User: Fold this.
Amino acid sequence: MRLVCVEDARQPRRLQNSISVDWVISPALSCWLASQFIPTDYCHLYQSIAIPGLPTADDPDVSTGKVGSLYASTVGQPSLTHSYRSVSSNPQTRKSQDSLLDRGPGSAIVFPATRQISIALVRIPTKSDSISIWRFCFSPNTLQTNNDMSNDEIEQTTGSPGSPFIYVICQNGAEAATKLEIMTSHPNLKLAFSRPGFITFKVDPHDPLPERFNLKSTLARTFGWSLGKTSGDEAGAMVAEIAAVPRFEEAKQIHVWQRDPVIPGRNGFEPGVSTLAREIGKLFEQTEPGLKNNLVANRESKPDELVFDVVMVEPSEWWYGYHFANTVAGRWPGGTPLFNTSVETCSRAYFKLKEALLWSGITIQPGDVCAEIGSAPGGACQLLLELGAHVIGIDPAEMDPGILEHENFTHLRRRGNEVKKRDFRDVRWLLADLNVDPNYTLGNVAEIVNHDSIDIKGVILTLKLTDWRMVAEIPELIAETKMLGFQVVKARQLAFNRQEFCLIAVKDKFLLRLGKKARTSASLKK
Assistant:
């Protein structure tokens, strides 16, 4: 719904030529709104112009408030914000600066409301070069305050399922690709706010998401409802402000995390709950609602549990909201699994595979034969050997000496397409991590999987995104993998991935149910 306030009888015609208008209100009605929500010294009597079908200042419904009540009940109780700007008093300068300022003192002006249902009122003091703009937003608990933002990116300050904004966590540097992917698969979402690794979207009120929604995205690490933000220099005051939010009082689990400062692996950074986020989580546990509900911070949540979220976009700027843990990654703080990243490993592939197994539900059993194409220096092989598997590492490069010495490891110093098919005869799980085009990797995998003498249960592939625009090709890659005879195929950019994503596929979905059952059982024992 779009709501505009007209200043004269000619304006609706001009507006309707450029935007869709569902409701048009008169200066008289905007005056009534001003009297309800703006301090008295800011109220001005507007010249009332009769427009067919609209109330005027003489209309008894305006004076009694019936019209305002009608609009409030139709589009939601309006919220109010006041923004202040300094501008030149020169009419020509004002016109060139901002078309909103080309109005007289006390006039009601139009905000086209491309993102929100809103009207605005202007007061220009006679002895000052400053202007005060009051904006009404007809979306419960939603404010739009920054008038300098472009149409492509507007800032969200608060939101709720009644006026929904959602947040999305992604890898630092993947924002543009994530925005494109999400807005392609969810055309009812519009970009609202963006920082490296953190994005919010506004949901079209005419095409809402269910409260327990799932986002169709490979790059989204986690997501949920965004309720707003708080900022300041005193952590205790910020915690107290968030603890007063109704959803916080309902939650028994809170996830607190910092957005990624850089891409994973750079300068020794690995995703997870930072020391600062852990300490802030403890403060939330000690609040009155937290103690009453036995609130637990930064633990793996139970399936489908209501989780309150606090994202530390900056140390002094926290965004908050909630989600239901209806995905595996949704049970982890910030969509990152809770395991120790300080262990000594051959390479980061150890963490990537560990996350892939937890996310996918694949369980490697002792004695399983696994082969990895592109295995050097051996991080993934290290984890497989720890799980009791027999591992074949396929790579012309050198493997880590500790891996080579393991009794259950065999090194084939060849490229994947140079390995004889009989060497895969006993392999049940096939892994690949090649720095090549995804189609090349899938071609190698297809030759192995389709061979008559080979029975692969499933594959775990790390596919490189040499260009972020390749995200658009992921649905096609999934379809091609299904054609190889796999029942279940899933893709996700893992928290420990870089400019790449993980694709897993299994021929029997029962294998994933076994993994899920084991994972849930282990979680409940914690």
